[in-house]
Amino acid sequence: MHPAGLAAAGTPRQPSKRRVPVSQPGVADPHQLFDDTSSAQSRSYGAQRAPGGLGYPAASASPQPAFLADPVSNMAMAYGSSLAAQGKELVDKNIDRFIPVTKLKYYFAVDTMYVGKKLGLLFFPYLHQDWEVQYQQDTPVAPRFDVNAPDLYIPAMAFITYVLVAGLALGTQDRFSPDLLGLQASSALAWLTVEVLAILLSLYLVTVNTDLTTVDLVAFLGYKYVGMIGGVLMGLLFGKTGYYLVLGWCCVSIFVFMIRTLRLKILAEAAAEGIPVRGARNQLRMYLTMAVAAAQPLLMYWLTFHLVR
To answer: 178-206 and 153-172 are packed helices; what angle lies between their axes, rounded to 10 degrees?
Structure first.
């Protein structure tokens, strides 16, 4: 055997090493069919996530909304605000011309003691002596300090209570309906409006210079609802007899109350002098006072007689 062949047979054969070309960055592999873009996408995705934090894009750095940055929008908002302010001022002026809204707080400045004394005065005006309204620096004091001062709390609460009592009376007679109750409330308001307008027209025709305002008239004319409530309640408890007895007492009481209250408002000149003036104008004032006082019992009966059967 050939020695070279023996040497080759005795020595194990080493595997041949194949040189693999190393790819350089930026140089594509010649044997690769498609470009690998996963690394580029991952890098770009990481760059997008970095500012936002949770995978969301970062918010705009400008905190001012886009529509506020527009000068036209700013001008429109300023113009609208000025128009709203002017409109509010115009409405306030026109309302105060007819209804003194700013002075309504005076008529609701009451307390529990005043309400109790006023109700006693409405039911028993014969025991009261001093009917003069107290003033402080040419301004009448609040009702809670003077029982003779007019208020709107008692008339408002009495009107609401009257409507509720009317609904109760209609319900006990199986005649209740929302339409009938609304008619009852609207009728009471309509008669009150007619009274106020008639008195204002009469004061204008008689040319009476008085400090009696429209709100004062509403307050004085609204006190009759207290007697109406008492009459209807007694009618529900004791029938027609109780209704006529209590309503008759309340009618006489409201008549006396209105005479002694309005004579100081309408007959201010004669009351201040302390002597009766027999002029024609003062007689007209006296007749007007008597007519307003006499209308209260008539309306009290007209608005309640059908509620008691």
So the answer is: 140
pLDDT tens, position by position, 87-129 = 777 766 666 666 666 678 889 999 999 999 999 999 999 999 8
Cβ proximity of 112 and 78 under 8 Å: no
The two structure tokens encoding residue 170: 């209609």
**Distance between CA atoms of 81 and 94, rounded to whole angstroms?**
20
| Tens digits of residue pLDDT in 247-276 | 999 999 999 999 999 988 887 655 554 445
Q: What does pTM read for this prediction?
A: 0.68
* Joined tokens for residue 160: 């609401």
